[in-house]
Amino acid sequence: MLSFDVVIVGAGAAGLFCAGAAGQRGLRVLLLDHSEKVAEKVRISGGGRANFTNRDIDVRQPHKHFISANPNFCRSALSRYTPQDFIALVQQHGIAFHEKHKGQLFCDHSAADLIDMLLAGCATGGVTRWQPCAVRSIAFLPDTQREKVEVCYQLMTDQGVIGARSVVMATGGLSIPAIGASDFGHRVAAQFGLRVVPPRPGLVPLTFDGAAWAPYADLAGLSLPVLISTGEKKHRITFAEDLLFTHRGLSGPAVLQMSSYWQPGTPIQINLAPEIDLPAQLADAKRRSRKLLVNELAQWVPARLAEAWVAQDPDWQRPVAECSDKALARLAERLSRWELVPTGTEGYKKAEVTLGGVDTRDLSSQTMESTQPGLYFIGEVVDVTGWLGGYNFQWAWASAQACAQALPLSTAPAVESAPLRLSTVPSKL
Ligand code: FDA
After folding, report:
1. Is the CB of 53 under 6 A from ligand 1?
2. CA angle 98-101-102, nearest 5°?
3. 307 HSE (CA, 13 A, CB side)
4. pTM of this prediction?
């Protein structure tokens, strides 16, 4: 049986990075992926320029930018492999980049530069790569069935049976199934008795009931800066970002960020004119202006939005000087505290990430090894989800690095005291 020190399943951001780093430590690495191409999500990320990290990551307070049942879990890996470490690597490879917004770093040219860098790391580490190659089953071998002491796992793949001392699951989340996403990592976790926090789409556009959305449907394509909030009391969270109207609802960075915190059935609140004191401006306009209210409003919000807004109330369809104080107050209140209840999200087809995943209670934050010895989970398959803005890639690099540095070399003693868990990958969770 062909055997390796480690088989890494998933040649995305985390899998490629881990494979290169482990290979460069001298491990014999097999990296396999059921897709034909590597790192498709890296390729399409950041509009094709990959927002590959974020300078603002606060490793002492990971809960500020990462969502997890245990937000402190990611602290160890993130503090041992920082954005500066990845930036240094990118610079070493001569990849030009720029900062766009709130610490977000993008390639100047193309995300393909980053993929080339990851592949170069694998080549330096002598990584064997098989693609497309699916894994049909993973078995943990009892001592008596091991041909070699280092071979703890047996994988049935499209290209034959493989032995490995360690297995790393880097199969990512469920979003964008069209480019290879699957729940395989979650099912392998379940096979070995690990807990999985129920997955759901994150960083995802929100949708609204057709009839209720009709007044805003013509605004599709309109973008404006807003303040957006969800949650109550200490769970309340607010983002200051751009909002985008779509045909079915709302998107843009403001909504994507907030969607990861939104609970189905609960309202969201949006301030559509966060930069001005609307009641004061309207009162002033009433004193000095002879214009229609809609034209006054168009100074502070986009004209299309002003038109759609005043169309909702006859009291607003007149010169501002003729509007009652009550009508103006109502307008200011509705624009600065627009409350609405989404019917749902655009789902995994449009989500950038998957919330939930392999439960961190069953993983070591130092090594990413699970309670099943020799089985590791890295990247998005783990219940660690970052904000929009390069946080998810930084988690992929940091968790991959923590794992790569911890993987045992073949000269180290094999895992002997592992509990036996002989079972098959369940077809469903
Ligand atoms: P990733 O998804 O990268 O890789 C998983 C790999 O596993 C894939 O190659 C897949 O084919 C393979 N696989 C799955 N099932 C398998 C199976 N059964 N057998 C074998 N192989 C299997 N983040 C960020 O920080 N900055 C950004 O700019 C963006 N932009 C962005 C845009 C879009 C459109 C999306 C969808 C996502 C982003 N992200 C992002 C998120 C980011 O892409 C994501 O968090 C990382 O790619 C996660 O890295 P992983 O390696 O964990 O999974």
Report:
1. no
2. 115
3. 7
4. 0.94
